[in-house]
Every structure is written in structure tokens, then in C-alpha cells.
Specification:
Helix 8 links the parallel strand 5 (153-156) and strand 6. By secondary structure, the protein is α/β, with parallel strands linked by helices. The protein is globular and about 65 Å long. The chain has helices at residues 2-15, 18-25, 42-58, 73-80, 94-102, 110-113, 138-147, 162-174, 186-194, 205-213, 260-274, 277-286, 295-316, and strands at 31-35, 62-66, 88-93, 114-129, 153-156, 179-182, 200-204, 218-222, 247-255, 288-290. Helix content is 46%, strand content 19%. Helix 5 (94-102) crosses helix 13. It has 2 domains: 16-122 and 248-316, D-Maltodextrin-Binding Protein, domain 2; 124-239, Periplasmic binding protein-like II (D-Maltodextrin-Binding Protein, domain 2, 3-Layer(aba) Sandwich).
Length: 321
């Protein structure tokens, strides 16, 4: 009996450090970052930057995979159902927090099936119009929309995206009737506006600034509470529509039950990357502001954002098309 007890205690001692040891050795193979949106948008661009930075410090390849569709739910569901071993991550945006209210029949629940790792960055959106639109200012566009109800349309990257919610919030606060035209991804939406097929779009400043500078679209307003540092001559929408404000932010999540040691290590490395002067300077020129939080803080932030947009969606009567 004594020998058996000693044997069991010895085995327990050997087994006890196995989980932390495995976490410390992670990663031993490539890690994939699933982007639930199409190529060229903010989530895709910053996932690739983050993946490269993580790959350099963790000595493994971080492979970005675009799994677009259904307002980000296809890619999110892939990660929610992936093995919780640290080798599948999700680059998410506030599209997924709004989807918690907007899309009731998703095959996953964000805070039940995934776990918070770290935020990445945030940026303002910018409202642009096709050059063919007669309105040169935001008040002129509002007047045009009211004079022609249902005639103007705005493009988005799909239901629940910040671009969609920004448009619906604008309609509610201005009392305008503007048609929502959802697209598969922000690249397609952007091309339709530049081509004059759709008149209006709300897009991330980081993605649209080059098109504005090239004269392919006309910027009428940004969505932050103050003017964008990279578009200082463009007024905020709130200058014409008091109280209007919305942003786009990005973050990393992992499947629920991913070892906390891996979550902690990822968070620590991402936080170091966000603090790099070169990263902060380059992103500032694009209009993006790095964000840093602990996993617990990011979890609280996500839950707060879900609640915030649930109230907006319900009060405004916003529906998924």
C-alpha cells in the first residue's frame, strides 16, 4: 500500500508541470490567424503586420487565412470550433460584438465559445461619396437624401460590420432614408463606390485615406469625437450631427479552453509589439491607435461593447438584411 502511494505521488509530480511546460514550449509549429473578412480591409492588413511581428519573436510562422462571409460569422465559427491549443487565433473586430445582437441564429456565441487575448488597435471611420454625387458637404448630402428619400444608397462590408452600423446610426440621427447595400467584403464595397455604382460608404480611415488622396472618392466627415490627425481638413460628422460617434477596433481571440499560459504569453508579446515606437509611428500616420489591455480587461471591454451596441441596435430598430 505504501509503495503504491509513493508510485502515485511520483506520477502526479511528473504530470503536474506538463501543462506549463507545454505552454512554455509553444509554438512548435505554424500558427494560423483567421481573418473573418476579405483581403485588403483593416483586419486583414493588421493581422499580417501582427503575424509578422509575432513570428519574429516567437520563431514560428503566423499564417493569415481569410475566411470571409456572413458578416464575419463564418471565420469566427471556424475558430470557435478549432482545437484550443494555441494554434488557431481570430483577428476580430467590433463587427463580432454587434453580431451578438444583430444575428440571433449564429452557430456560436462569442463570449461562450471564444476567449479574449488582446486588443490591437482602433481607428475612426470616414464617410465618403462617389465623385458623381452632387453634395460637396455633409449638410448638402443630408439635404439631398431628404429631398430624394430611398434614392441614395450606402455600401458596407456586410451586416453587423462597423460600416453597416455607422450607416444605420447616421440614418437614425439624421432622419434620412438611405438604402443599405451589403457586400461580401470591404474591398468590393469600396470598388462599387469608386465606380459610382453606390453613392456612399463608411470605411476605416486606415483603408480609405489613399483613395481620398487620389481623388477617387470625396470625404465628407469622420466618425470620431475630434478631427482625424491624418484627415485634418475633413470635419467630424458630429459637427453637423451632434452626438454622432463610432469607431472600428480590432483584437485577438482564441478558442475557449486555450491554456491560460498561452493566452498570457500571447498577450504579453502583443503588448510589447503595440509599444514599439516604429509600430506606433507607422500606425499613427495611417490613423490607427494601438490598444493594450490584459486578457481580463479585454474580456470586460468585449462584454461592454456587446451591451453598448445591443442598446443602439434595439433603440434604432436596426435589422440584418
Amino acid at each position: 500500500m505504501r509503495w503504491t502511494m509513493k508510485f502515485l505521488l511520483a506520477m502526479a509530480a511528473l504530470a503536474a508541470p506538463s501543462a506549463p511546460a507545454n505552454a512554455q514550449s509553444w509554438p512548435t509549429k505554424p500558427v494560423r490567424i483567421v481573418v473573418p473578412f476579405g483581403p485588403g480591409g483593416p483586419a486583414d492588413v493588421y493581422a499580417r503586420i501582427l503575424g509578422q511581428e509575432l513570428g519574429e519573436v516567437l520563431k514560428q510562422q503566423f499564417v493569415v487565412e481569410n475566411k470571409a462571409g456572413a458578416g464575419g460569422t463564418i471565420g469566427a465559427d471556424i475558430v470557435a470550433k478549432a482545437a484550443p491549443d494555441g494554434y488557431t487565433l481570430l483577428m476580430m473586430s467590433n463587427t463580432l460584438t454587434t453580431n451578438e445582437t444583430l444575428l440571433a441564429n449564429k452557430p456560436y456565441a462569442l463570449m461562450r465559445d471564444l476567449t479574449a487575448v488582446a486588443p490591437v488597435n482602433s481607428s475612426d471611420l470616414v464617410m465618403v461619396v462617389s465623385p458623381s454625387v452632387q453634395a460637396k458637404t455633409l449638410p448638402e448630402l443630408i439635404a439631398l437624401a431628404k429631398a430624394q428619400p430611398g434614392k441614395l444608397a450606402y455600401a458596407s462590408a456586410g451586416p453587423g460590420t462597423p460600416y453597416h452600423l455607422a450607416g444605420e446610426l447616421f440614418k437614425t440621427m439624421t432622419g434620412t432614408d438611405i438604402l443599405h447595400v451589403p457586400h461580401k467584403n470591404s474591398g468590393e464595397a469600396r470598388n462599387d463606390v469608386m465606380g459610382g455604382h453606390v453613392q456612399i460608404m463608411f470605411d476605416a480611415v486606415t483603408a480609405m485615406k489613399g483613395n481620398i488622396d487620389a481623388g477617387q472618392v470625396r470625404a465628407l466627415g469622420t466618425t470620431g469625437d475630434k478631427r482625424s490627425a491624418v484627415l485634418p481638413d475633413v470635419p467630424t460628422i458630429s459637427e453637423a450631427v451632434p452626438g454622432y460617434e463610432t469607431t472600428i477596433w480590432l483584437g485577438i481571440m482564441a478558442p475557449k479552453a486555450t491554456p491560460p499560459e498561452i493566452i498570457a504569453r500571447l498577450n504579453a508579446e502583443i503588448t510589447k509589439i503595440m509599444a514599439k515606437p516604429a509600430i506606433r509611428e507607422a500606425w499613427a500616420k495611417q490613423g490607427a491607435v494601438p490598444m493594450t489591455m490584459t486578457p481580463a480587461q479585454f474580456d470586460t471591454y468585449l462584454r461592454g461593447d456587446i451591451d453598448k451596441w445591443a442598446k443602439v441596435i434595439q433603440q434604432a430598430g436596426i435589422k440584418a438584411p
